[in-house]
Amino acid sequence: MKPFPNSAIINVPVPLARQLFEVAEQLPWRSNQEYYDVACQTEVFNKLQEACGEGFQGLIAAIQDCLETPPFSALVKGLQFDQGHRLFVALNRAFGVLVATPYDHKSPRNQLIHYIHPSADLAIASDLHKQTERLHTDCADWPEPSKYISMQCVRPDSHGGGRSRQIDMYTLQQLLASCAEPGILDKLHQEHVPWQLAAYLGGGVVWRPILTKNSMCWRRYTIDFALANEGVELSKSMLATLNILDEVINYTDQIIDFALETGDFLILDNQRCLHARTPITNPDTQRLMLRAWIQ
Fold first, then answer.
1. What is 8-166+260-294's CATH number, 3.60.130.10, 3.40.605.10, 3.40.50.2300, 3.40.50.720?
2. In this structure, are residues 206 and 150 in contact, taking their beta carbons and an 8 Å threshold?
3. What pLDDT digit, counting tens, does each position of 145-155 carry?
């Protein structure tokens, strides 16, 4: 495993962090559901940008620079987040529009700002792992996955579980190029595979390759769902290729592994790197992350 690179860590100066927090606290409080309205997202972003000027703009520019080169992510430290999520929304709105599944007040995940608790993780039917513990792309069951995802660490696991992991597409392609399967990269670029679309999008299947020149998408169970439920097939050769890819992804030592601490803000390019977390074995864990999808 590799540590998160220092070149992609941004330490926010204390005066700027204090200013961002104080401005955010003065803005009107809005519910999670209200933030589905893009105008509400934009209003918070504009207010913070107007009040914090060059400091806020400089922070956004520094994050953008990190997102353009491997590992296609930025880890921001030193921020002070308000409980109304106004700073969190504004930071995300700087990189696009926050998007989500249809709102469901009964489900912490089915909201614009997702509340990520370990108990809500989805088990993979084929084994004892959970999908969040396997390197994957978020929104793989959309016609096009979200461009970015972000996480705010509210509380880490007190026993050290739930460490973040990620790998970028260039590192993965180098690993695949050196494996024993000849032509595997060509297959992954050229052959389309079926992806089960989410029920709230009407279901069905969309066909697309796992790798393109500038992106990758991987979530094995979404492909397996399509194969099991939609009457579609892949050749034995392509199924073998998927198994090789799965093995390379989950057993390489080139994965970046790090712990998020309270107040950390992580944003990554969901179309150019895969992410996961390590298992959480503490039955009484109070770990809480806020997550957003950005398009």
1. 3.60.130.10
2. no
3. 999 999 999 99
